[in-house]
């Protein structure tokens, strides 16, 4: 792995320019994430909303938001019914 070292200037406002070849290589467009882990600053590209659109589909098995909400409501209702039965059983 070859480390690329670039020296950039920082303006009085704290702005620095990320070199074009690094912006291109990492797909940096509008926004970046800057992480301070206590030892160093890490810059990570953030995907644009267009690129991130649909990125969670695999997690939800292709279901629509409505289907997911209906499933969650059914599960919540079933859990509520269990609690009601337990409460009634202990009060008798």
Provide a short characterization of the protein structure.
The protein contains three helices and two strands. It is of the alpha+beta class and 92 residues long.
Overview of this protein structure:
With 92 residues, the chain is α+β, with helices and mostly antiparallel strands. The protein folds into 2 domains: 1-53, Pemi-like Protein 1, Chain: D; 55-91. 41% of the residues lie in helices and 11% in strands. The chain is built from 3 helices and 2 strands, in the order H-E-E-H-H. The chain has a two-stranded antiparallel sheet with strand order 1-2. The protein is elongated, with a radius of gyration of 25 Å.
The gross shape turns out to be elongated
C-alpha Rg (nearest Å)? 25 Å
Task: Using the 3D structure, state the CATH architecture of the largest domain.
Answer: Ribbon
CATH fold topology of the largest domain: Pemi-like Protein 1, Chain: D
Largest sheet data: 2 strands, antiparallel
How many distinct helices?
3
Q: Which class of secondary structure composition applies to the elements?
A: alpha+beta
> What is the CATH C level class of the largest domain, in words?
Mainly Beta
Report mean pLDDT, rounded to a whole number.
84
Strand proportion:
5-15%
- Strand runs, count: 2
Task: Set down the secondary structure blueprint.
Elements: H1 20-26, E1 32-36, E2 41-45, H2 49-52, H3 65-91
Antiparallel strand pairs: 1-2
């Amino acid at each position: 792995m070859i480390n690329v070292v670039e020296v950039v200037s920082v303006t009085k406002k704290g702005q620095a320019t990320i070199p074009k070849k690094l912006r291109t290589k990492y797909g940096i467009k509008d926004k970046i994430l800057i992480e301070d882990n206590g030892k160093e600053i890490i810059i990570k590209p953030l995907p644009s909303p267009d690129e991130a659109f649909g990125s969670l589909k695999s997690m939800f098995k292709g279901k629509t938001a409505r289907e997911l909400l209906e499933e969650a409501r059914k599960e919540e209702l079933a859990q509520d019914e269990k609690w009601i039965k337990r409460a009634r059983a202990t009060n008798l």
